[in-house]
Amino acid sequence: MASETVTPRFGANYVPSAGWFYSWLDYDGDAVRRDFADLAGMGLDHVRVFPVWPWIQPNRAIIREQAIANLLDTIDAAAEHGLTVAVDLIQGHLSSFDFLPSWVLTWHKSSLFEGSAVRDGLTAYVDAVARAVATKPNVFAITLGNEVNNLWPDSSTTPETSAAWAQELLTTLKKAAPDVLALHSVFDDAWYKGDHPFHPVDAVDLGDLTTVHSWVFNGVSRVDGPLGPATLTHADYLIELARATALEHDRLVWLQEIGVPGPDIPVDLQAEFTRRTVETVLPNPALYGVTWWSSHDIDRRLLDFPDREYDLGLFTVDHQRKPAAQALADVIAEVRANGVMQQEATTLTAPINLRTEPGRRAEVAPGSEFHLQWVEARGNGPVRIALP
Amino acid sequence: MASETVTPRFGANYVPSAGWFYSWLDYDGDAVRRDFADLAGMGLDHVRVFPVWPWIQPNRAIIREQAIANLLDTIDAAAEHGLTVAVDLIQGHLSSFDFLPSWVLTWHKSSLFEGSAVRDGLTAYVDAVARAVATKPNVFAITLGNEVNNLWPDSSTTPETSAAWAQELLTTLKKAAPDVLALHSVFDDAWYKGDHPFHPVDAVDLGDLTTVHSWVFNGVSRVDGPLGPATLTHADYLIELARATALEHDRLVWLQEIGVPGPDIPVDLQAEFTRRTVETVLPNPALYGVTWWSSHDIDRRLLDFPDREYDLGLFTVDHQRKPAAQALADVIAEVRANGVMQQEATTLTAPINLRTEPGRRAEVAPGSEFHLQWVEARGNGPVRIALP
Fold it and tell me: What pLDDT does A1 receive?
């Protein structure tokens, strides 16, 4: 039995080709439009964009009007290219760099999660930025911030605090922007690391849908990468874990980040990895969309990035379409032409309950007995996960 | 015997009236000119200006052209008002806030003093900014950064490392800007705290003259403030300590910061404190100049500053001249009309050698037996300090 699913959304995490996110400091709407033309040209329907928090709120009492205006212009630029927009707010964490304002550092050191003044400041920030961007009809989602759990351990927290922090800010966000998706976003340590102070339940209980970020350098590429079954199915595995952990089993899961990091995925295999990993997730009825990380490479003249970050773009810094982009464009065209056929699934029961036993998360991590069992079963088609 | 000295320079540490240093992010040359008109109007001859490091060098490889252009416009604005300019580079530390780029934080955490990549970055920054501002004929001094020793303990260091760090950057600075004063600047912990990893010898051996910052909240106002002799003579005491510690006894000392912090100096006594403390230092032949902290108050709508920081301005945020400003303007007019008469001095020998026994610095700190002895003697006229 197979039935047709809704075509998922396809997009890119927007990394400006000139000057990375530093370009916010010298905003150039024409350059943004040139980048968005690249993305629209390969058939994408949306971009996820990342303002930089301390440059918008350099003092707890300041929300810079010009910075908001630049963000709104970026959203308009997307609209001009037929792209809808997801906005992330608290950056916060981007490609190994944490952007933090002076009012939470050194003499003013305070945990972003635990400090009450900081939480007041973040509430004001989330409210102001969400309210502003929600005036634009092509904004469809607002995420609290990119992988906010990477702000720990520099900012201390506990599981209870992390959950309350996200819940409170999502409430603020929903009030400010009631008509768009309000979302939480975490790096997959929340799914796999036993002592991590952000729990799987937060990812699946908070916000209007679940977001997952699938990065094969998390250990899975060491299992059998670059084109082994564990590596190619990791995104689908994470979606299934998220789906199994949600109380509502029809809760959608957005594959909000996936990419081809070297050296795990060598350049000559990136097109194939892209095609096969996307084709693997497409039949999953929980899939909301696929958003590639990232739109554009990082200029190698910029220093201090982890080496793999430089080359993650669908496009080079001079706007050349790379092999992964072509592969993704081909898949998109194929899906739009022929749809996606749902496939019959089997079910495996996890050894632990991710809702109630987060301390045992390592038992479902890449390379765990359960994970390998799931990967083997996945060779015969979709495998749902049941919690015990 | 009394002889006339050279008239010292008078200036202000420039704190923008609108938006504090955050205003660099939304640079408004007209607002700067309005502020400088206030300062020129009270007879000042210079301003000390503070670019914010991470906004100029957000990536180790980027020096933002627009940020440099804004800094140059500020220097031009000063020239238009007959003001010369001292530029501080590594901010770094400003009024309790430390501005640090993402490339030295969290995942990239590195001591500004000890990290070799950070030192490379700072060298590039110092070179580029110094080279740019030195093209302006009204720039007379460049300081490495405002009270860089306040960047410790967040950035670890040792006395040897601190000295080598400053020496290396000063060499870079001197090469980039050979015709202006190249200076080092430290908060007075370097003079008074036994275990502080910046030593008095650095202040007096490095750079083209010595800078001191006299803040009576350092303990001296508890001795006899607000108008007691210890409080009123603290600036002169610090100048004498600096003069005594220098190898060259004619090395000039710039009183680069002094102000009227509340609650130590109550509002109704600020004019008198200003007049008397400035009149006390004027006859000191080592005095290069007096630079008030600060030009303008901080808008109370801005949050998280220590309370005393808001009201340190010579002018309010709406350009009203405050009592300390009037007192300073009166002293300046008096000095320009009548000159300054040098006074005969006595000499006291310090109990420790600040060059060789920095671990014993507390023995000359405010409230120490030696300090009180000096203050008593100072009641009869200038008191030089000799090291044993």
Answer: 39
What are the pLDDT digits (tens) for A42-87?
Answer: 999 999 999 999 999 999 999 999 999 999 999 999 999 999 999 9
Inform me whether the C-beta atom of residue B53 falls under 8 Å from chain A C-beta atoms.
no
Residue A106 contacts B where some CB pair is shorter than 8 Å: yes
The stretches in chain A having pLDDT less than 70 are: 1-6
pLDDT value of residue B342: 87
- Closest-CA residue in chain A for B150? A107
Q: Is A105 on the interface with B (CB under 8 A)?
A: yes
Q: How far apart are CA A216 and CA A276, in angstroms?
A: 14
A19 contacts in chain B (CB < 8 Å): 62
- Convert the pLDDT of each residue in A155-164 to its tens digit: 999 999 999 9
Which residue in B309, B187, B12, B321 sits closest to A59, CA to CA? Answer: B309
Residue from A59, A91, A112, A301 whose CB has the most chain B CBs within 10 Å, to mutate:
A59
What CATH code would you report for B9-341? Answer: 3.20.20.80
Instruction: Give pLDDT, residue A5.
Output: 57
How many helices (H) and strands (E) in chain A?
13, 12
Q: What is the nearest CA distance from B10 to chain A, expressed in angstroms?
A: 31
Q: Side-chain half-sphere of B8: how many Cα atoms within 13 Å?
A: 26
**pTM of structure:** 0.97
Cβ contacts of B145 within 8 Å, gap of 6 or more: B53, B88, B89, B90, B91, B92, B93, B151, B185
Band (pLDDT 50/70/90 cuts) for residue B320 is very high
User: Could you report the predicted ipTM of this complex, rounded to two decimals?
Assistant: 0.97
Q: What's the burial of A26, exposed, middle or buried (CB within 10 Å: 0-12/13-18/19+)? A: middle
Residue A85 φ/ψ, nearest 5 degrees: -135, 135
Is the Cα torsion angle B104, B110, B115, B117 positive or negative in sign? negative
Q: How many helices (H) and strands (E) does chain B have?
A: 13, 12
**Which residue bears the tokens 């350099």?**
A58
How many Cβ atoms are within 10 Å of A199's Cβ, its own excluded?
A: 24
* Domain ranges for chain A: 9-341
Q: How, if at all, do strands B181-183 and B210-214 pair? A: unpaired
